[in-house]
Amino acid sequence: MKTLWSGRWRAAALLGGMLAAANAHAVLTLTADGIADGFSLSTFYTDPGVYYGVINLATASDGSILATGYARGQVYRFNDVDGQSFGSAVASASLPGAFAMAAAGGRVYATGGGTFYSISTGLAATPLTLTPGVSSSLGLWGNPVTGHLLSASNAGLIDIDPLAGTWRAIGPFGADGVSVSPDGHTAYAEIGGGVRGYDIATGTQVFNSGALGHGPDGTGVISGGQFNGNIIVNNNDGTVGLLDPSGANPYTIIATGGARGDFVSPDRNNGTLFLSSADGVERLSCGEDCSIGGPSPVPEASTTALMFAGLGVLGIATRRRRS
User: Fold this and answer.
1) What is d(CA 273, CA 18) in angstroms, rounded to the nearest whole number?
2) pLDDT of residue 212
3) What residues contact 259, with CB distance under 8 A and at least 6 apart?
4) What pairs with residue 208 in β-bridges?
5) Distances (CA, A) of 120 to 141, 228, 231, 240
6) What is the mean pLDDT of each run of 10 residues along the chain (323 residues)?
7) Distance between CA 125 and CA 120 in Å, rounded?
């Protein structure tokens, strides 16, 4: 979501979103650049006519997908398969104001009404007590290295230790679409119409894209492959961009035609990235030996087979040398 909402702005956005979502599901489609770059898309969830029936997702410790449903004030559990709808949820529970969600340290966390919760696989919500007090609505991501949460909050971009119940600020107020680099060192967020990066340990700004256009929102960092370190950006205008923080390549639109884009979430089962929009959730893959938002690439089956074949040959050669 863009900035912390005022009541008037939120009402206008909700009305516009509900009217847009009342039509058929807007199909996000790869551009020629997206196809050439090896990306692929599939649809995880559709909910036409409901504004953000699912808005953020997280991979639970048992491999199921938990989700926040902003429109209905619910949290859900889904199996990790494509082609789902509201009726596909295998379980649901009430969480008023259900909004941002992320997995960290083997646990799933969510915000509801500005409060942070730990969410069990059975969807029980336990409030977190953070010292000093802080609330959040916009953006939540788990650091794959430390198990901390990075959040856009009323105190700025913050690093939360959910087990200790403490936090510290590392970036300014007004952030959105938070993500963390796979090495756990850098937090990225949308600020002022662009994407900025902050060293999590020091709070030093290390990257600023400047204004990108298209209404950037959720972000996810690619690990492995030809675009290692590049950032996927889910845009409010229904497009998806590929951003190179090194500056070596221009900002490229790799998909168009979707509904209003918002948060993104890593699927830690398979290295794909969930792209939330006003009327559904798409799944983006970056191809062979590559993951998006996760701690490490997921090898393709062919690559794994070749690796084991190579190890077998190495073993035979070793035995021959020893005989």
Assistant:
1) 25
2) 96
3) 20, 21, 25, 26, 238, 277, 278, 279, 280
4) 196
5) 17, 32, 30, 31
6) 39 44 77 97 94 96 97 97 97 96 97 94 96 86 97 95 96 94 96 97 97 97 96 98 95 97 97 96 94 70 40 36 33
7) 7
Q: Residue 261 and residue 238: Cα distance in Å, rounded?
A: 5
| Backbone phi and psi for residue 15, each to the nearest 5 degrees, phi listed first | -65, -45
Q: What is the DSSP string of 194-213?
A: EEEEEETTT--EEEE----S
The Cα–Cα gap between 26 and 46 comes to 9
Query: With 0-12 CB in 10 A as exposed, 13-18 as middle and 19+ as buried, what is 138?
Result: buried
CATH architecture for segment(s) 7-322: 6 Propeller (2.120)
Sign of torsion over alpha carbons 28, 32, 34, 35: positive
Q: Within a 13 Å sphere around the CA of 274, how many CA atoms are in the beta-carbon half? A: 28
Rounded to 5 degrees, what are φ and ψ at 320? -65, -40
Query: Could you give the C-alpha distances from 141 to 36, 160, 175, 211, 250, in angstroms and in order?
Result: 29, 10, 13, 23, 26
Please tell me the predicted confidence (pLDDT) of residue 137. Answer: 73
* Structure tokens given for 126: 């336990």
Written as six digits, the tokens of 164 are 């200790």
Q: Residues with Cβ < 8 Å from 319, sequence gap 6 or more? A: none
Provide the 3-class DSSP secondary structure of residue 184. Answer: coil
Instruction: State the Rg of the chain over Cα.
Output: 20
CA dihedral 48, 279, 92, 133 (to 10 degrees): -150
Q: Whole-angstrom Cα distance, residue 72 to residue 58? A: 18
Please tell me the distance from the alpha carbon of residue 19 to that of residue 8, in angstroms, as a whole number. 17
**Residue at 18: amino acid letter:** M
Integer Cα distance of 116 and 134 in angstroms: 9
Q: Coil, helix or strand for 133? A: coil
Q: Is 316 exposed, middle or buried (0-12, 13-18, 19+ CB in 10 A)?
A: exposed
* Two tokens, residue 145: 């290295």
